[in-house]
């Protein structure tokens, strides 16, 4: 259960978790396969995960981090000493940081249906050995949570000190609390919602249409001989386009204006030329984001995971948000961001209302940030100031030993 | 100069202009061809236009309507008695309506670069007889205005009682005032801006990328043997996608939520099926909008006209908004819409500030509407209440006779 963490190794950042490795476990081996929310069955399921810090002897200091749509298990640290890229929430996780690895045991796993090591549509179907493609069963946020729960139990943990997530990760947090109200001692739900808005569904629909109308999509069977090479084959133009439009929705108008405005990319005067595709900096930036994305993400996973977001509707499933969230003793921290128009504050306030009406313990803040939906990934210090006392207090109340 | 208007013909709407016909004129015949803002030259230029009402003997009652990105010259009335579709601003134009055809002479023309009768990339190049495609020269909002000015002069009109337009039409209004400050007696600019925002450029970039990465785009030479059939050939999937994403930006989050919410299209329960593409009503609606759009619009025109919007920056061209707008004696009416996030009110207020600083006569209202950017097309009554007195007062002050 020891985290795979090497010492910071001369790093100038004493708060880094250092070099980490992704771990793998196989769950839901037949005959104990998972019955999905749709009724379909799936198994075995491989899960890619990382852990940081050490699990206490009483197994009471575990925190599960739920990643967002295109995230992965690699939350913090680096995969090698010469890697230039840290985990996606590196500033939040480490010794002395909000998710303090000198006190807590942090777990993050790649989601079911993803493409970063956990079973998803690019993985071989156990019967045919060929990639699932669109034969992969439909999955929901609840199915994602069930796999995480199985992982946590496999690690010998019955109760979590906290679950933490933003956006689709926040949906997982809410669904987890609804499914296993007694398993959670605190829940941190950032820039999220009890259901995806119609506007959110609309943008997802555009992204999916971009992928499925790309002639290289081939009805999902685009992997060729080596399914791990999905970054080199398939609906690259469509997936890049899906990312471009999604990326706009992650930023605020003000942040785009501030970062790019109407600045030109390569010159100080307008070219009056329709062929120069990347004349404004914002265009160049979006094209770059699209291009980078297709190197790391599978188009089929994008279809399945956006569909899981569309389907998420906690009140519809449980009768009401109150029913869904009123059964737990967990202490909640909910944040929204003033400039986030994809998951507006009104949606967080609906969650908060349901918690207050059922007399749950909740702290809610609408935070000022210019970064739009991406704020939850970027405004680390704001988050640290809120998360640190929540975890300390929750741990103080519930830990069995000193 | 008489408008091509038949009597309402038993219509139950006495305020309709009735049956109208699109007219055509050829301008900028060599050697008097148009020098574009880019320095390129273009001519001859065919212009499709419609007129409603009668020009007064003193030629002092003419109003020019500037259409938006995907509009056309057909503002009001019907093209035939059995047509089910009226012009795009029918509720605003007619006897007794805000643009009162019993008093005023209304003109609207399809924009340069468009695909509804005015010369654009789908038209034959005069030298080769083949469609221009991407050989069509780059055009700006200013070039569009120059063609309209030439049309107005060809109609024997020196001064306009008013110019009216929303969105890209509003940009034309502002550019017209800047270029020909003495030609305009009143200017109505709705849901528009002195420059397109970076976010607006970003959404346009996505739409253009959808078109140009469609394999059927063929670098713009997709017309086949009959260029008028562009609705049946070319980057249909890409153009539909461009329309889908643009359409989302024309609606407010609240109007999407109110109209569609999370309602399903064909059933009352979730299908848990990735293959059913149109499960939510909002998806079905967007796919329908995309499909309908490709029947009436040319992908190359979409590229050129969105680029013209991107380039529009009045302050950059004239040194400041004050310089651009401070030279006219025209009376301004500026409106923005509370729920319009594509052209937010802050952009209209910049225009208003420039007008106030130069002591121009301006009325500004931020109107309440749930319809987002599309409000200027839909909130006819609000508009009528503002436009009617502006025109009456302007006409009273300036007309030469009774």
Mean pLDDT level of chain A: 93
**Strand element count of chain A:** 12
State the distance separating the first and last CA atoms of chain A: 20 Å
Give the strand line-up of the largest sheet of chain A: 1-4-8-5-9-10-11-12
Oligomer state equals: homodimer
Helix content of chain A: 25-40%
CATH class of the domain at 197-311 in chain A: Mainly Alpha
Structure description:
The structure is a homodimer of 402-residue chains. The first copy, chain A, has 402 residues and is of the alpha/beta class. The first copy, chain A, has a domain at 197-311: Rna Polymerase Sigma Factor, Chain: A, CATH 1.10.1740.110. Chain A is 34% helix and 14% strand. Chain A has helices at residues 141-154, 168-179, 198-212, 236-250, 253-259, 281-294, 299-311, 314-318, 321-325, 345-357, 375-378, 380-398, and strands spanning 23-27, 34-35, 41-42, 45-52, 62-66, 93-94, 99-100, 105-109, 162-166, 186-190, 331-337, 361-367. In chain A, strands 1-4-8-5-9-10-11-12 form an eight-stranded mixed beta sheet, sandwiched between helices. In chain A, helix 10 links the parallel strand 11 and strand 12. The relative contact order of chain A is 0.13. Chains A and B meet through helix 3, helix 4, helix 5, helix 6 and helix 7 of A and helix 3, helix 4, helix 5, helix 6 and helix 7 of B.
What's this model, at a glance?
Two copies of one chain form a homodimer. The first copy, chain A, has 402 residues and is α/β, with parallel strands linked by helices. In chain A, 34% of the residues lie in helices and 14% in strands.
């Amino acid at each position: 259960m020891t985290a795979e963490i090497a010492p910071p190794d001369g790093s100038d950042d004493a708060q880094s978790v250092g070099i980490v490795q992704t771990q793998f476990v196989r769950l839901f081996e037949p005959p104990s396969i998972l019955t999905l929310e749709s009724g379909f069955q799936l198994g075995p399921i491989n899960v890619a995960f990382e852990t940081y810090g050490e699990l206490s002897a009483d197994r009471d200091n575990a925190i599960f981090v739920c990643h967002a749509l295109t995230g992965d298990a690699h939350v913090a640290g680096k995969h090698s000493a010469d890697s230039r890229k840290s985990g996606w929430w590196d500033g939040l996780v480490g010794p002395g940081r909000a998710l303090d690895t000198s006190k807590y045991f942090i777990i993050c796993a790649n989601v079911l249906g993803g493409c970063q090591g956990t079973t998803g549509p690019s993985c071989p179907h156990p019967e045919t050995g060929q990639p699932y493609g669109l034969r992969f069963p439909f999955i929901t946020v609840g199915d994602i949570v069930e796999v995480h729960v199985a992982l946590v139990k496999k690690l010998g943990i019955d109760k979590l000190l906290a679950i933490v997530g933003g956006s689709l990760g926040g949906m997982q947090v809410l669904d987890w609390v609804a499914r296993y109200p007694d398993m959670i001692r605190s829940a941190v739900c950032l820039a999220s919602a009890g259901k995806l808005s119609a506007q959110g569904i609309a943008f997802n629909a555009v992204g999916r249409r971009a992928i499925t109308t790309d002639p290289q999509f081939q009805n999902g069977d685009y992997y060729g001989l080596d399914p791990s090479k999905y970054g080199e084959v398939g609906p690259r133009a469509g997936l890049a386009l899906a990312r471009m439009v999604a990326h706009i929705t992650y930023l605020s108008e003000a942040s785009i204006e501030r970062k790019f405005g109407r600045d030109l990319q390569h010159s100080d005067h307008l070219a009056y030329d329709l062929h120069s595709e990347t004349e404004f900096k914002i265009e160049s930036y979006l094209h770059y984001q699209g291009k980078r994305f297709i190197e790391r993400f599978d188009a089929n996973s994008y279809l399945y995971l956006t569909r899981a977001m569309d389907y998420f509707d906690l009140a519809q499933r449980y009768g009401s948000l109150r029913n869904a969230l009123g059964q737990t003793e967990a202490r909640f921290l909910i944040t929204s961001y003033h400039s986030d128009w994809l998951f507006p504050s009104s949606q967080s306030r609906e969650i908060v209302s349901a918690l207050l009406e059922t007399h749950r313990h909740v702290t809610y803040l609408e935070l000022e940030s210019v970064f739009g939906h991406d704020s939850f990934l970027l405004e680390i210090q704001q988050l640290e100031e809120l998360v640190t006392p929540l975890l300390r207090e929750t741990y103080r109340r519930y830990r069995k030993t000193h």
